[in-house]
Design a protein that fits this description.
Layout (H helix, E strand, L loop, with lengths): L2 E3 L10 E8 L1 E2 L5 E2 L2 E6 L5 E6 L6 H13 L8 E5 L4 H4 L25 H12 L6 E6 L4 E9 L5 H4 L6 E4 L7 H8 L2 E8 L6 H17 L13 E3 L2 E5 L4 E5 L6 E2 L4 E6 L5 E5 L4 E7 L3 E2 L4 E6 L1
Parallel strand pairs: 1-2, 6-7, 6-8, 8-11, 9-10, 10-12
Antiparallel strand pairs: 2-5, 3-4, 5-7, 9-11, 9-18, 13-20, 14-16, 14-19, 15-18, 16-17, 18-20
Helix pairs in contact: 1-6
């Protein structure tokens, strides 16, 4: 596979269909940090980047992004589509959220002004050369110890109607997290949409199919892919309540993803070692968006996220 130095990568000159490695920097042993990239471009029209694998253990997005790239035929494309399935190969190769090389979260490095470590340099170059140069950025993530019901998150509520084109029933208007792509993209005029689906180190065929269908529909709506988009209207949520565990122990949930719950409804129970169990009750009414799947839990760790 061809290797292209990131400084030689020019979006406006792209045309055709190919895959290559983007050489970002070199590590201590002089080996190359070079994520794989795919492009399909007509050399005109809207520019869209689909990125996943910022966190190396979130496999649903990684699998989906490379899958849709392989399925799209060049003759379908009206603009430019850039796909980076594994944005953070250092973490992916360790099957971990971050790499032990520097223990830095790639999705907290953008526009931070500190670029010494490999992951920081990776974020800086990807943002400068690609993410800030496209019209739309689709950033695909998954959960960790818990599972996310597939949804799209935005920081600009004016983009709610366009977000519905991903065909998810839930749209979350979130606050900006410093250093994240969702926070950095508005600074460059790029519209960023964050998709969350599934959990870490897991492939969910149903979610993969759902995301793929939504991506195709969004590409059609933005006139990047030929065809008519499907109309859909998702529910908009503006507040998220994170429910932490009151104690360390083992969590047994009483609810499932997507459940509508009432305030004070029992979410589940935490059983302590050599002691009894304690009921965990909801602080609000709303919809269960995230649910812990790992049974063992430490005090304070998230058990659920509830949207309203």
């Amino acid at each position: 596979m061809e290797t292209v130095p990131i400084n030689n990568f020019q979006i406006d000159s792209l045309k055709g269909s190919k895959t290559f490695r983007l050489e970002i920097t070199h590590l201590s042993d002089d080996s190359s940090l070079a994520p794989q990239c795919g492009i399909i471009s007509k050399g005109e029209g809207k520019k869209i980047c689909i990125v996943s694998g910022q966190h190396g253990n979130e496999w649903n997005g990684i699998y989906t992004s490379q899958k849709i790239f392989k399925e799209i035929r060049p003759e379908e494309v009206k603009g430019t589509i850039i796909v980076i399935p594994v944005a953070n190969p250092l973490a992916f190769n360790e099957k971990s959220r971050v790499s032990t090389i520097d223990n830095i979260d790639l999705n907290r490095t953008y526009l931070k002004g500190r670029y010494r470590k490999p992951t920081e340099i990776l974020g800086k170059m990807l943002f400068e050369k690609i993410f800030s140069q496209v019209d739309f950025l689709i950033d695909i993530h998954g959960g960790g110890a818990g599972e996310y019901k597939p949804h799209v998150a935005i920081t600009n509520e004016n983009r709610a109607d366009l977000s519905s084109k991903f065909l998810f029933s839930d749209i979350f208007v979130e606050e900006k997290t410093e250093g994240s792509l969702a926070a950095a993209c508005p600074e460059s005029g790029t519209d960023c949409f964050t998709i969350e689906a599934g959990r870490q180190r897991n492939l969910n065929p149903s979610y993969i199919s759902q995301i793929t269908k939504g991506l195709r529909n969004f590409l059609k709506e933005t006139d990047t892919l030929r065809g008519d988009s499907e109309d859909f209207k998702g529910d908009i949520f503006r507040r998220k309540f994170e429910v932490g565990s009151p104690n360390s122990g083992f969590f047994d949930p009483d609810v499932e993803l997507g459940n509508h719950i009432e305030e004070e409804e029992t979410l589940g129970r935490v059983e302590r070692l050599f002691k009894g169990s304690e009921a965990v009750r909801s602080p609000t009414s709303g919809k269960v968006l995230y649910l812990r799947r790992e049974g063992a839990v430490s005090q304070g760790e998230n058990l659920t996220h509830i949207l309203r």
